Recover the amino acids of this structure.
């Protein structure tokens, strides 16, 4: 197959908005929605600030029979998948004649912690007869992929990527490969819900987790006040298709998946991590047949510690050369939190929307950049955007880079 893989639908469930339009409006304006953690049972934990998805009613979006089987991270995924399919104008009638041509791939790092905690509490307090049967599947990383495919009748290639945070970008590579091997369409993305007490306790050992209690100072990447990141929930799902198939059915091509590469550089030395990220960027550019000067905006990983930020800045400069000092760099997640595998999925949604609107969104809560990068702060910046670079790193040393190109109207 020679047809390009394109994005035709975007579905977002994020701390700053549900739906792509609400998400983009808040992202473009630079609104920070970081706030004190309000989830029950978290009152006495050291983590004080996070990006919560508030006002999200899964019961209004997902049938009861799926809700009782699934954790909050899958509720997010089911809702985001619906939004993506609606945006792509892709209904069951479009694929029910060939369900094996449509698959699902998601990424997950934390799994169903809230569901698992509840059932384990039943075990400890009441005994095994009070543990629900869905405990065996709801916590699992692959739960979202499975439930989306079952609910929508999708029987094509299905999988889950568990490769730390960068898996949110690696999932796009898996979807692209499925398209190139003959699938018509794929649902791809990542959602997370890591704010239950058990999940938070597991995160307390993470290097770089910010425990500051001031929402405006808890997550300030690329500044001399950088003190780590704050976690977040939510995520994004996308419909990707073979371009010729999308054109055939009259779909709007929102963006093109142009190139991807991944590396693993270990966890000990940040300079080696920077080298690994730079290698991933060069690989993604090579696959996209893209020169460094062609990159119009970089959506940074922005871990938010001095060492990690310095390594990322060095990687951008090494991979893009002199252009690395000129290209606009942004990290909208500093206003929503870092949603682990879902963070690069949300960045990809923001990148596609930025390309469409010709606007680079700002990096909330960041003003005094201390690295040799053109980090967009304060307010959004209008620019002619054709190509975006999205970066992601995991705590355990995985690195991933994705090149996304601006889409084009439906062919006549």
């Amino acid at each position: 197959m020679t047809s390009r893989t394109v994005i035709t639908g975007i579905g977002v469930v994020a701390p700053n908005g549900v739906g792509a339009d609400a998400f983009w409006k808040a992202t473009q304006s630079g609104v920070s929605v970081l706030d004190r953690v309000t989830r029950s049972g978290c009152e006495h934990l050291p983590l004080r600030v996070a990006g919560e998805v508030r006002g999200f009613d899964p019961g209004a979006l997902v049938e009861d029979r799926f809700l009782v089987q699934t954790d909050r991270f899958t509720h997010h995924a089911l809702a985001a998948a619906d939004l993506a399919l609606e945006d792509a104008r892709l209904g069951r009638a479009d694929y029910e004649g060939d369900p094996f041509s449509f698959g699902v791939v998601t990424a997950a790092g934390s799994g169903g912690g809230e569901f698992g905690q509840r059932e384990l509490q039943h075990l400890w307090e009441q005994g095994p007869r009070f543990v629900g049967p869905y405990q065996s599947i709801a916590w699992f990383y692959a739960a979202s992929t499975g439930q989306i495919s079952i609910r929508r009748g999708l029987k094509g290639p299905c999988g889950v990527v568990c490769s730390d945070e960068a898996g949110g970008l690696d999932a796009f590579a898996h979807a692209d490969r499925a398209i190139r091997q003959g699938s018509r369409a794929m649902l791809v993305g990542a959602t997370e819900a890591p704010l239950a007490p058990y999940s938070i306790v597991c995160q307390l050992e993470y290097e770089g987790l910010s425990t500051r209690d001031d929402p405006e100072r808890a997550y300030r990447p690329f500044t001399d006040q950088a003190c780590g990141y704050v976690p977040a929930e939510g995520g994004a799902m996308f419909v990707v298709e073979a371009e010729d198939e999308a054109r055939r059915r009259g779909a709007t091509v929102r963006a093109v998946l142009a190139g991807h590469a991944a590396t693993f550089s270990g966890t000990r030395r940040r300079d080696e991590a920077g080298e690994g990220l730079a290698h991933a960027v060069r690989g993604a550019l090579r696959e996209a047949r893209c020169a460094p000067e062609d990159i119009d905006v970089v959506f940074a990983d922005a871990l938010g510690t001095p060492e990690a930020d310095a390594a990322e800045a060095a990687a951008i400069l090494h991979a893009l050369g002199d252009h690395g000092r000129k290209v606009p760099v942004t990290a909208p997640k500093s206003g929503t939190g870092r949603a682990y595998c879902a963070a690069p999925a949300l960045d990809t949604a923001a990148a596609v929307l930025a390309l469409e609107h010709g606007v680079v969104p700002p990096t909330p809560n960041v003003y005094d950049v201390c690295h040799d990068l053109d980090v967009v702060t304060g307010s959004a910046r209008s620019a002619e955007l054709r190509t975006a670079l999205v970066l992601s790193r995991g705590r355990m040393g995985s690195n991933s880079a994705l090149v996304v190109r601006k889409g084009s109207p439906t062919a006549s």
